[in-house]
Design a protein that fits this description.
The chain is mainly α. Helix content is 82%, strand content 0%. It starts with a helix and ends with a helix.
């Protein structure tokens, strides 16, 4: 649990974006900056889930627990989907 908190705080510090006021007041640039910030947070959550799923699969292989293995693979799949959510949405919308 502590490791998850440390990883989350580290990713939040690494992915922090500097926000500066724009002189010309372009509202579209503000929306784009907010969108990239939100997708950065979503990507960080996806990477945390992906790492947790990999650990869960590894522990299930050690303990020979098929239900934990299935949950681990589902967590890995969900982590991959959440990590690449922006790219998936851009592929869908064209």
């Amino acid at each position: 649990m502590i490791l998850s908190v440390v990883i989350a705080v580290t990713l939040m510090c690494v992915m922090a974006l500097a926000v500066f006021a724009d002189g010309n007041g372009d509202p579209l640039a503000v929306v784009n900056n907010l969108s990239s910030f939100i997708f950065g947070l979503i990507r960080a959550i996806g990477l945390i889930l992906l790492g947790f799923g990999i650990v869960q699969v590894g522990l299930s292989l050690k303990s020979h627990d098929p239900s934990q293995r299935a949950n681990g693979f589902l967590t890995v799949a969900g982590g991959v989907i959440i990590t690449f959510a922006k790219e998936i949405l851009s592929l869908i919308t064209g």
